[in-house]
Amino acid sequence: MHRPSLAAVLVVAAALLTGCASGDDWSQRRPVPSAVGTPGAGFTDPGRPPAPESTVTPSPGSWSGVRPAPGTRVVLLTAGTDRPAKTLAEAVREWAKETDVDLRTVTASDDTDLLPAVTRALDLHPDLVVSAGNDLIDPLTTVTPSHLAQRFLIVGAELAEPTENVTAVDWTGASFRGEGLGMSSTYDPASFTGARCAAAIRAGAAAALTGRTGIVVWLDDF
After folding, report:
1. How many whole angstroms separate alpha carbon 140 and alpha carbon 158?
2. What is d(CA 157, CA 136) in angstroms, rounded to the nearest whole number?
3. Are 160 and 141 in contact (CB under 8 A)?
4. Are 207 and 217 in contact, with CB atoms under 8 Å apart?
5. Which residues have C-beta within 8 Å of that of residue 108, sequence separation ≥ 6?
6. Domain containing residue 195: CATH number
7. Residue 21 and residue 1: Cα distance in Å, rounded?
8. pLDDT bucket at 20, cuts 50 / 70 / 90
9. How many whole angstroms separate alpha carbon 220 and alpha carbon 63?
10. How are beta strands 128-132 and 102-107 bridged, if at all?
């Protein structure tokens, strides 16, 4: 019976270890992968790119032709156990599974861990940080202007004065802005349906990964 040589066994073992490491190792920075596809008609006006801090209202489904490149590194940054935060986080996980995103999750354990949680997310050097939970808005307001090379996507809330690296997805019933402004008078936890949250992560990712950043994507007509 033929037995493989020790050298051959070692080569195969090394190859397997290398393959596992390449998929899991986030220690090295890299250029952000390009998105696959482009937004469809009605997402934004191709002749008039949205101005910084402006709000765009894409046609429903106009983002469906855009997917992250397989293996895109995404950190889901979460806080809170309320229904909206949990529904948003689940939508992000489903999107990551569907699109073959390399997803890691950073969860703030309590109010004192909010800013440290943002720092832990940044330390992973992801291609995109996706935030779910109103409690993260003030910490992100503090951190994002100092990390302009890092792309952020906020779903179900927004920053009062976003920098060019921050994209938000919002709608009537959401739109929490932090900075002591209080909850919007139109805030409605029931508006955070599974379908709307699923649309929010897809529309927001389509914007953020195709360079349409520093804006608010508004999803009222959904």
Report:
1. 10
2. 10
3. yes
4. yes
5. 77, 78, 79, 114, 116, 117, 133, 135, 136
6. 3.40.50.2300
7. 33
8. very low
9. 15
10. unpaired
Q: What is the mean pLDDT of residues 92-100?
A: 97
Longest pairwise C-alpha distance within the chain? 77
- 128 falls within a domain: yes
Which tokens belong to 30? 């890299």
Residue 167, beta-bridge partner list: 153
Mean pLDDT value of segment 42-68: 92
- The residues near 60 (Cβ < 8 Å, ≥ 6 apart) are 199, 221, 222
Structural domain includes residue 30: no
What is the CA angle 165-217-139, rounded to 5? 45
Domain contains 187: yes
Q: Is 183 helix (H, G, I), strand (E, B) or coil?
A: coil
DSSP structure class, residue 175? -
Q: Which two tokens stand for residue 191?
A: 């508006």
Nearest alpha-carbon partner for 170 in 180, 160, 13: 160
Residue with the two structure tokens 């009605």: 42
Q: What are the tokens at 125?
A: 């050097």
Number of domains within the chain: 1
Domain that holds residue 184: 51-218
pTM: 0.86
| C-alpha to C-alpha distance for 165 and 121, rounded to whole angstroms | 15
The residue to which tokens 């955070």 are assigned: 192
In a domain, 87, yes or no: yes
CA–CA dist 218, 175 (Å, integer): 10
Q: Do 74 and 96 contact (CB within 8 A), yes or no?
A: yes
